[in-house]
C-alpha cells in the first residue's frame, strides 16, 4: 500500500472548487480543472463515437462486393483504427496532464480548447483520407493535426 494520504479538500456545491476557495479564485480568473477535464472527456468520447460513422455508412450492394469494395472497407477500417488510437492516446495524455494541473486560468483554458478543437478536426481528416486515399491532402492535414495536438499539450506542460 502507499503511504499516508491527506484528505482532499471538501468540494463546493457544484463540485468544482473547495468550499471557501471559490471567491478568492474567481477574483483571479482561476478555477479548478475538474470542469475542464469533464468537458474534454465528454468531447473526446463524442469524437471517438462519430469517427466510426464513415465506416458504418458505407453502402454496398451484394452485387458490388468485389475486391475493390473489400479494399475500400479495409482502408476505412484501418484509418478508423489508427485515428481512434491517436484520439485515445491524446485523451490519456490529457487526463494525466490534468491530474497534475489543479487550477486553470484563461490562458490554460484557451490552450486546452485549442487542443480539443484540433482533436475534433481529426474525423474530417479521417474522412478525407478514406474518401480520397490517393490524394495527399487528407494525410497532410491528419499529420498536421497530430503535430498540433502534441505541440499544444507540450505548451500546456510548459505553461
Automatic annotation (TrEMBL):
Membrane topology: Multi-pass membrane protein
One Pfam family hit: TMEM175
Catalytic activity: K(+)(in) = K(+)(out); H(+)(in) = H(+)(out)
A GO term, aspect molecular function: proton channel activity
InterPro entries: TMEM175-like
Gene Ontology CC entries for this record: membrane
Chief localization: membrane
Cellular location(s): Membrane
Membrane-spanning intervals of the chain: 39-57, 77-98, 110-132, 138-158
Name listed for the protein in its UniProt record: Endosomal/lysosomal proton channel TMEM175
Gene behind the chain: TM175
